[in-house]
Amino acid sequence: MAGFTAAALGAQEERFARAFAAADLEIARPLYHPDVVYLSPTVRLYDWPARIEGVDRMLEFITLTIRACRDIGYRAVEHAIAPAGDAAFVRVHFDWTREARRLRSNYVVVYRYRDGTIARQELYYDPSGALEDLRPGRRGVRSRPTRVAGARSAPDGTREAASNPTPPRPSGRRA
Known about the structure:
By secondary structure, the protein is of the alpha+beta class. The chain has helices at residues 6-21, 55-66; strands at 32-39, 51-53, 70-81, 87-98, 101-114, 117-124, 131-133, 141-143, 152-153, 159-160. The chain has 2 helices and 10 strands, in the order H-E-E-H-E-E-E-E-E-E-E-E. Strands 1, 2, 3, 4, 5, 6, 7 and 8 form an 8-stranded mixed β-sheet that branches.
């Protein structure tokens, strides 16, 4: 296998941009191996397991985290492909509107590939960091995230947040 290419990574990131803009993660489903493993610090905000396995469960979780986001913009701003072509690193600007505020999350995703699909997706960001406020006159101002409020149990026994996908500031407990 020749490994994952820059052209394939560009097509992957364009598909993610379309999926998030449409708030329809099913658009991204073909990118994933059925047994994908998903790791993200965001899971702790929803009382989901630290490791999410399987494409259905992973897409369910990501959909949960974006449901209160409006006008999503997803843009890969930097990337690198491992020399063997079996992994890629992408820095993402994820912009959205919430309550008339335009916000940005800046994070890194590590993709590990198997059979030309994403077999493992790892997100890295500072969970205690502030979001960037993109409103005119406030560009570059850091905005403290709001806590996930009103979490309630989902039918499958997990917890789901009522309306806020934004990571909270730490409350003293460690994940």
